Amino acid sequence: MEFVAGEYDVAVVGAGHAGCEAALACARLGVRTVVFAINLDSIANMPCNPNIGGTAKGHLVREIDALGGEMGKNTDKTFIQSKILNSAKGPAVFSLRAQVDRRSYQIEMKNTLENQENLDIKQAEIIEILYEEVEGKKVVTGVKTHTGAVYKCKIAILTTGTYLKGKIIIGDVSYSGGPDGLFPANKLSDSLKELGIELLRFKTGTPARVNKRSVDFSKMEEQPGDERIIPFSFETEEINKEQVSCYLTYTNSETHRIIKENLHRSALFGGLIEGIGPRYCPSIEDKIVRFKDKESHQVFVEPMGLNTQEMYLQGMSTSLPEDVQIQMMRSVPGLENVSVMRSAYAIEYDCINPTQLSLSLELRNVEGLFTAGQINGTSGYEEAAAQGIIAGINASRKIRGQEPLILDRSHAYIGVLIDDIVTKGTNEPYRMMTSRAEYRLLLRQDNADLRLTPIGYKVGLVSEERYRKFEEKRRLIEEEINRVNKTNIAPTEKVNDFLKKYNSTPIKSGVKLADLLRRPELDYESLGEIDENRPELSFAVREQVSISVKYEGYIKRQMQQVEQFKKLEEKKLDKDINYDDIKGLRLEARQKLNKIKPESVGQASRISGVSPADISVLLVYLEQRRRQKA
């Protein structure tokens, strides 16, 4: 029997990383919000890696924080190890990664949701999206739970993760289930099909968890955290805490032999898995098949938290049977006597084809239905949270009758992520990588606040106090860059002794401090030895000054490329254009353009199957329309 249990502006379905950010953004922007989870103990769960960040993913977390999101702050509260990856490379690819205490992360995030004004939390499975037909278009009116309760809402945001018709697979055993032994959501997929939404079937996997007491760390390489801890959140003051080590070991010829001899028993190669898995995070058996010449593969042994003996075997994702998993693990140095606490498994789940979305993350054919996270065909906690905050912002803006927030590719990794999935689609779980961003020297993790905090403030998620501090930081950076560019360094004995110490060519006449900073062998910190009038500045300010001056030429060149990019982005395309009516467009281009309905010529140019010649035809068409209107 149905009964109306409540009325809200926004209903968020799922409380993983996307759902948490979406619900918090909506509630903080003043709209009455409810968030549903099948089990409240699964809020912000980490069914796979117990870490946040990593290559390109760290950029996303800092962007979420710059906009006013929660993931970075929660990570700073609960991490147990922190590292900057790619520190030997350029600043464009530096990526912060933190090992977190999994349970602490969940508890902290759940507590944040519980204490948030305008936000209610409910334990229930949503089985149906309710809607009505208005002028031939489906419009969301509410959601229904498995017990028959109806919650009326103006907007629903689906953040269902890997729960939709979830199927767990271990060897030749498969059963209906969600991640981590939780229940799946088996009925909502049918409701989405009824709404005319195209579904895909994807797969991901998670490695085994083992008991720390059964691991011999003396046979492994210790991987400690960094001495200098850099927070994820721009609001977090300096952190000093004792860190926990991870450990590195390797597979070997014996491991590979065991896997090869049992490939026929792997669900992946035995035909039991229908879903498409992530290319950039393959299972161990997939690695053995694809990289035949590799003699070994890395296995990171990572703690799940401070109050548990569970450890996670990063790099050993598999769908092999349990007996083979144990043989395989025990062939690895340090794991000879390992005790498995949770077996590795693959999970298949339903997701949508993301080309059905607009860049705001709203379904084009269902008014008031937004989606974020793995339901959009992406992988990873960070990708999910990034979409979650944008879906939350845009849901609240829609309720207020405001234009959606669209971050473009030159502005944020979040913009690259959303543009990629909406414009190009994906035939496998999409993972963010630095190589996907054309303007990655501009989109660094260190300057995410300079790029996005003004937007977060304008939207309403960044407080007045935070924005004042941000403005002060920006002022200090500009002043110091000006000082470095104007300061003249004389060719004294002290200066040339300093330059010789760093194998840098001595100077014969005065040079600007900025010119010395641009030398590859020198950096801002070391130049403090000869820079007598240097002010006391925070590490974050010094870092910005150093990068801005050192890479000035490259940054200017990339800014010019962005200007060219924006010219096409600014040429907007009406949603009512029928591309079949435009003469000169090739058949494939017409089909793709009518399906995706790009919002600009720039977006149209990135659609697979739309050629430069088609873009030229579009530009001519737009010019003709402009003249007709004039």
Automatic annotation (TrEMBL):
Binding site for NAD(+): 277-291
Gene Ontology molecular functions: flavin adenine dinucleotide binding
Subunit structure, interactors included: Homodimer. Heterotetramer of two MnmE and two MnmG subunits.
Taxonomy, superkingdom: Bacteria
GO CC entries: cytosol
Places the protein is found: Cytoplasm
UniProt xrefs under SMART domains: GIDA_assoc_3
Broad class of the protein's primary localization: cytoplasm
Gene that produces this protein: mnmG
Cofactor field: FAD
Protein task: NAD-binding protein involved in the addition of a carboxymethylaminomethyl (cmnm) group at the wobble position (U34) of certain tRNAs, forming tRNA-cmnm(5)s(2)U34.
Annotated residues for binding of FAD: 14-19
Cited HAMAP family: MnmG_GidA (MF_00129)
UniProt keyword annotation of NAD present: yes
Family statement drawn from the similarity comment of this UniProt entry: Belongs to the MnmG family.
tRNA uridine 5-carboxymethylaminomethyl modification enzyme C-terminal subdomain domain span: 549-620
GO biological process: tRNA methylation; tRNA wobble uridine modification
Protein name per UniProt: tRNA uridine 5-carboxymethylaminomethyl modification enzyme MnmG
Keywords: Cytoplasm, FAD, Flavoprotein, NAD, tRNA processing
NCBIfam families: mnmG_gidA
